[in-house]
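Record 1 of the preview.
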Amino acid sequence: MKKILIILTLIFLLTGCGSSKNKLIGEWYYIENEVVFTVNFKDSKKCEIFDDETKNVKKCTYSYTSKELTIKTDDEEIKTPYELKDNYLVLRGIKFYNSLDSAKENVKENSVKVPDVTGMNLQDASNILNESGLVIGIITESFNDDIEEGKVIETYPSAGKMVGKLFEVSIKVSKGVERLTIEDYTGMDYLEVKEKLESYGIIVKIEEKEEKSNNQNEIIGQNVEKDTVLKKGEKIILYIGK
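->
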């Protein structure tokens, strides 16, 4: 029985399950979007997580079994399966390399440059991104003064960034110049209406008319009819009584 226990213990140590000194101890590197992430496992079961973009160092502790690694910080606890190879550690499907040079080499071999699809329609942009080995992520829309409606304003990550193959690229598509459907503002306070219209980029002019009004701020007319659509930079005149 004692002999069996000794053999099991030796196997346990040789496979790295019983001693972190042979396997986990040291710095492990992962690069994404040109940012280097470092996990430093120390002999005291303490660890540090660092990225060279924010320069923040997050203190942590760790423990592990033959199948699962647990990392604890002040605000969270991460339990994840892991795989330990000769020069890399796989955590949540991500390879952390035991040298920065190896991590950089992996980026060269498995990364692609995000193509510039600005100004293209969504279908063409999607095709080019897919042909580059990338995946279409979240698609959003936004008003834009310079990019035609239906065309791509920008991507995230931006054009030229190096990312991993099958990385999800988000696309922002233009809704064109912001427009506003004009209401009948008769009887409303011209100061409130003016503020609202100007927030849409509409140029507002106030003119007085020889007409009595119960409220000096009350709109008694306008030069643009109700349901007319105005774009940013177009004008409207609001009339108030003297």
